[in-house]
């Protein structure tokens, strides 16, 4: 991974952006020798919403709007019936 000082990044910002876009290689921006940011290539998603990436990852195994437990199992139901 390539790294460069913040001052150099500031001076060559457009060239660095073009390099990351072209190669996909991330660049770490340093300030006083410490990493402060990481520039990575954007993922090209043609989806309209982030949750669209989850399409096809969920499997419905049963009724999704019915109660998980029968009414007799609920403490509130037990108290009401007494």
Outline the structure in words.
29% of the residues lie in helices and 18% in strands. With 82 residues, the chain is α+β, with helices and mostly antiparallel strands. The protein has a domain at 1-43: 3-Layer(aba) Sandwich (YefM-like fold). A 3-stranded mixed sheet has the order 1-2-3. The longest helix has 11 residues, at 13-23. The mean pLDDT is 83.
Task: Name the features.
82 residues; YefM-like fold
Tally of DSSP β-strands: 3
Per CATH, the architecture of the domain at 1-43 is 3-Layer(aba) Sandwich
Q: Report the CATH superfamily of the domain at 1-43.
A: YefM-like domain
Output the radius of gyration. 26 Å
Note the overall shape: elongated
Q: How do the SSEs run, as a string of H and E?
A: EHHEEH
- Quick one: biggest sheet? 3 strands, mixed
Quickly describe the structure.
This protein is of the alpha+beta class.
Task: Map the helices and strands.
Blueprint: E1 2-5, H1 6-11, H2 13-23, E2 27-31, E3 34-39, H3 75-81
